[in-house]
Amino acid sequence: MPFRGVAIALASLVVVLGAPAPASAHPFGDPQTVAITADPARPDVVRVSWKVGGLDDLTVLGVNLGLLPEDRVLLDGAVFYEPADAAAIGPSQEFAAYLLKQVTVTSDGESCTGVVTPPDDLAKAGADIDYTCPGAVGVASVAVRTLTDLNPAYRTLATGPGGAHAVYTSDAYTHDWSLTGDGVRKSAAAAQIAAVLGGLLLLAAAALVLVRRRKRRA
Fold first, then answer.
1. Which of 87, 152, 156, 182 is most buried, with most CB under 10 Å away?
2. Sign, CA torsion 82/85/86/87
3. 27: nearest Cα among 54, 67, 63, 64
4. Is the Cβ–Cβ distance between 79 and 60 less than 8 Å?
5. 101-104 contacts: CB < 8 A, separation 24 or more?
6. Residue 84, pLDDT score
């Protein structure tokens, strides 16, 4: 086919397919994570540490924030991550504003003010957000909506004080975390009590089975 014919064919294909689509989300890889911690020196502060799951998700986010060129995501959804992506996204005001919008903290019904620490290595270490609340925090209500604005299939694995765990989804994006020493000890004590009760129930069930077997033999 002459060069002119090839050019016409490619132009027609572009018209049919349209311009490059916005970055596609890839929610089925490693999940993003958050860690909720208290600050012993500042009882009114809650720290949320966010880390992306897959580096391609970081690239997709950068494209959606306008920090990376759209051609980094192909029409078929393939994403090309480059080491420079994290360096371009991490210190940006757009990324900080995104985190503060998608991650929120309230205590006693009052909103807490967040400040994002510019990350040294966004890809490996993630980013920290310190939320200062109106007073000392006993229970913090933390909402996480990161990446679910790109695709509701994203999940966030969360950890908190005392070994507490939770999973954030697009439908369940808020969770209460106990940050006080008493609350953490009570949570751990409750878990221990539940384990003991479970063990006692198993022993009782085993004893009942033995009694029934003996009666049958008699």
1. 156
2. positive
3. 54
4. yes
5. 102/144, 102/145, 102/146, 102/149, 103/34, 103/48, 103/50, 103/129, 103/142, 103/143, 103/144, 103/145, 103/146, 104/142, 104/143
6. 92
What's the pLDDT tens digit per position in 79-99? Answer: 888 889 999 999 999 999 999
Residue 205 has which token pair? 């069930």
User: How many beta carbons lie within 10 A of that of residue 136, not counting itself?
Assistant: 14
Measure the CA–CA gap between 102 and 165, rounded to whole angstroms: 20
* DSSP-assigned letter for residue 100: H
Joined together, the tokens standing for residue 114 give 């967040």
Least confident of 7-21, 43-57, 67-81, 198-212: 7-21
Does residue 119 sit in helix, strand or coil?
coil
Q: How far apart are CA 126 and CA 11, in angstroms?
A: 42
